[in-house]
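Data availability (excerpt). The following record was deposited with the supplementary files.
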Amino acid sequence: MTKDQKDNLFSLVKSLTKSEKRQFKLYVGRLGVNSDSKFLNLFNFLDKAKAYNETSILKSNIIKKQQLANVKSHLYKQILISLKLNPSHQNIRLQIREQLDFASILYHKGLYKQSLKILDKAKELAIVNEEKNSAFEIVELEKVIESQYITRSISTRADELAVQAKELSTLNVITSKLSNLSLQLYSNILKTGYVKNEDEAKMVINYFNKQLPKVKIEDLGFREKLWLYKANLWQSFLLQDFLNCFKYALKWVDLFYQNPSMINLNPVFFLKGNNYLLEALVFIGNKTKFVEKFNDFEATVQKLSFPKDENVASLVFLYTNFHKINQHFIDGSFAEGLDIIPTIEKELIPFGEKIDPHHKMIFYYKFASLQFGAGNNKECIKYLDKIISNKSLSMREDLLCFSRVLNLVAHYEAGLDYHLETLLRSTYKFLIKMNDLHEVQKEMIKFIRGLQDIYPHDLKNAFKELHKTLKTFEDHPYERRAFLYLDVISWLESKIENKPVSEIIHIKYLAKNNLI
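Predicted structure:
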């Protein structure tokens, strides 16, 4: 029977680098009895295979059917142990965990003094590196051992451990509450995007205020501050308060630069903080500050000391390329950004499953927007179709909605009138179904539907009327979100003034920054 290619063991084997495979074989070969073992033979077979096929495995006679499940399980475990021993995967968390394991073994052998000595060093390492969950676990074990290893200092030692346990427990509870709040708000961003009305805004604010623990910033350590800044950032994003997004994203990133050892210990959080900082700067429209922070980001991730594992590498790829594109949206330099599209598409291939479909769709929307801004409407439609035809995409409802709105505009611009009526119906049905039909979309659909009844010499006046209507929504707290995905107002101004949309956006950028 042929099984899905996404078999967990097969995926793990295929994820190994050459050095990790060599390490595994050395690890297994340390015992001569393993040299011709079933699990090693299975490893070699899977390493050479292009796809997981159980029938082929059984036909190879390296293993019997009734043994396969157990041998696969054993091989999976042995690979993980080998990876754990690999120097490239060693970090502070593993070192602390290893010391805790050693201390537990010594405790069970009755070697209390040796166990306490290891625990004390491990606890210090955990506290210095903000691993307070591990530190609390260490203190709890210390309390158990101290209750059996009686010394003259037990009374003061007991008080000391009790105070330490209480302090760590309090901070861990604060972190847990902040991380829960942060995660819930982040989930809302991914599912529905920005708030759409006053009721949703009140729900977000009330939920945030209710769930936010009362804290004094001076009492918090690195970890607690990080989650506090994250929670504030997600609330600001949901409310489209981009100045506060910038404020809290900057606090997030600066927290790492103030604690440089935390960059290597928490590279993913460092990367994400920079991503949201740069995204906020795009929405604010400050290209000077954007370029400064983007250069800082690239300089840091390119350092030899910066972690280089697969997860980190995929995030560096994502955020670097997202913002290489985003910088062109700030000042309308769309044509300059076109060269990066084929490069990114080519580099996306080797990342395979490491980049999820949601982020691939974001790339396609950015590609489409670049092409639209540069006047390449048919290329824009090509990328939008990749999003619209993806029936399995369940995240970012706002992305799905505005892909369809941009698709309508691009079809109109490309002169593909014979598709418009069908697209109008399907777009309208989609927006109604997703409860996302707001004033900007309504006016856009009404306008495009009525284009066939407008005489050519009246077209400019029709554009002016729509422009006048939509300008009233430009600063609306909830309707303005439409313009973050598609700058319809600049597009209309380009039709009215008979100029490329890129030129209109560039002039606005220069005027906003007092450069003209």
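Summary of structural features: Confidence is low (pLDDT under 50) at residues 1-5.
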